[in-house]
Structure of Small ribosomal subunit protein uS14:
Amino acid sequence: MAKKSSVEKNNRRARLVKKFAGRRERLLAVANDESKSFEERFEARLKLAALPRNANPTRLRNRCEVTGRPRAFYRKLKMSRIALRELGSKGLVPGLVKSSW
């Protein structure tokens, strides 16, 4: 089980990313638009830099929803390999059959 503080920190970041997503998208569109003047683009970059750092989606970490583990994460199932193995062995993951030979 991951530290509760790490999981909560990631949840706070996810909320910030969601809150500022529209504003970030609009500012990035202006900043990357070649047809705009240099001053407009520069001003958009300054406003973008003024946003909270944790509002950037690259600061999010994929974590297991069961244990909070940050590594060996399966995106499709939103869980780590260890949690997947435990739940699969108990028969709680539909369609997953543990192989043995």
